[in-house]
Structure formats: structure tokens, C-alpha cells
Specification:
This protein has helices at about 10-15, 35-40, 45-50, 100-105, 110-115, 190-195, and strands at about 25, 65-70, 90, 135, 180, 185-190, 215, 235-240, 260-265, 270, 275. With about 280 residues, the protein is α+β, with helices and mostly antiparallel strands. It folds into 4 domains: about 20-75, Roll (Membrane-bound Lytic Murein Transglycosylase D, Chain A), CATH 3.10.350.10; about 90-135, Membrane-bound Lytic Murein Transglycosylase D, Chain A (Roll), CATH 3.10.350; about 145-225, no CATH class; about 235-275, no CATH class.
Amino acid sequence: MPLPVEQFPGLAVRSLLSKRATCRTIQAVKDDTCDKLASKCGAHWDDFIKYNPKSDLCTNLVVGQHVCCNDGAMPDLKPKGNPDGPCSSWMVQPDESCISIGTSKGGLTVAELESFNEKVWGWTGCVTLQMGIRMCVSKGTPKPPNPFGNAVCGPQKPGSRQPNAGEDMAKMNPCPLNACCNIWGQCGTTSDFCTRTKATGKLAWYSGDKENACISKCGTDIFNNKKKPAKFMDLGYFESWNPSRPCLNMDVSEIPAKHTHVHFAFGEISKDFKVDLSKTKG
């Protein structure tokens, strides 16, 4: 004799929550409609709608979207990255958006994609998604950005290694002599290289109105050393030929005593490669 369900409420809950088998899926391609997808599935229209009960499926169908071709639960098709290793990545194609990418990757939400890509080089958010960005579509460490053929600094220098976990990629491959490195991987000391980016809190790549925004060793401010040197140098410059001028001339004996060092110009090199001061006066 069957036991009354009312006496065993947990039994009813478990039966309602029992996992259905996953369905067989196909992905929508360009110009697909629900009619075409039902035909590809070999399913009657009414059955196709039963297999895919989402009310706005047919009006908001996206290229790459998965649909069920038979009865069953939609399988988990989200890319599986490694939280302690590289993420599963995707190169953004023309006309793609976070919505279309997320839909094609098993139903990832915009919020999930934003969270996966907080540390991705070149990430400016889903609103301003950049074509060609290699974004993460799972948890994990971002891969290095695509190299620029002529980059000499930064993470996009050809042949760059995989960055270490937590490493600031902006500081990879620094410029010689502490010069500024801009987003195009070029070194210099002018505003085209040293303009500070407004992209705070994220890896710098593009700051909106600063096309050549700096990514490392930024700014051209001059700072004095906090620690006073033990002694200073007072350097003077003396033109040894100046007595030949009709005015504004000075004899070497008139060099002010305040100078600790004097640049005496100019000596020459003799034929036997020695310093020759014979033509200087004073």
C-alpha cells in the first residue's frame, strides 16, 4: 500500500527536485530562427517550444546560443577555467558584445564576465568592449595580451613571458634609463609617453581622452632628494677664446672664487691623441 505523501514531506520535495537528464544541444548561427533550429533538431515546433520554454527565446535569439533538441535539462556549458591557473580565454570578434559572448559560452552573465576580467590587460568593461581583446570567460589568471610587432616595453613586447600571479603587467619590460612606457609599448620622455592614465584601480590601457596614456614610469614631475647631500658642487663654464671678443670678455683670473669646479672650454686632440690646450688663452 502506498504511503501517504503528507506523512513524509521530504519524499515529495526530493521527487520534485530529482535531476533530469541533460538534453542534446545545438548552437544558433547567423540568420537562424526558432523555426530553422527546430528543423535542425528534427523536432516538431510544439515540442521544440516545450524543450525551450524561455518566453523570449525566439525574439532575442543570439548567434552562438545553445538550444535543447529534446527533453531534458540544459547541460552546464560554461567554460571551466582553473582558479589557480590560466583562465579560459576568448578573443573578442567584430560586432560581439558581452551579452552575445556570455550567451554563446553557456549563459554567462555580464556581471560574471566583468568579475572574470577585472585584471585583464586592455579591459575597459562590457560597455566599451574592445575588439581583439583576449578576455577571460571563466575564473583564473589572465593570459598575456597580444604582442605589438614593434613594442619595446610593457607586456605587449614580443616574446614576453607569462606574468607571475599578482604581478603588475604594466611594469613588465621596463624602458631603459627609467623612461616612460606608453600603451603602444614605446619609450620616451614627452607627453606622448608620460601622460598619466585616469584608469585607476585597474591595469592601465586606455584612459579615454589620453590616446597615448602612460603605463609605467609615468609623469614628468621633478622631485628633490629628501636627504640633503653631504656637499654641493658649484659649477662654472669658461670660454677660453672669449678675450678675442671686443666686449663681454673675461680673463681666466677673473673667474669667481665661489665656483668649486670650472668647465674650461675647449681642449683639442693632438695628432698623437693627447689633450692639446695650446690654442686656449688665459
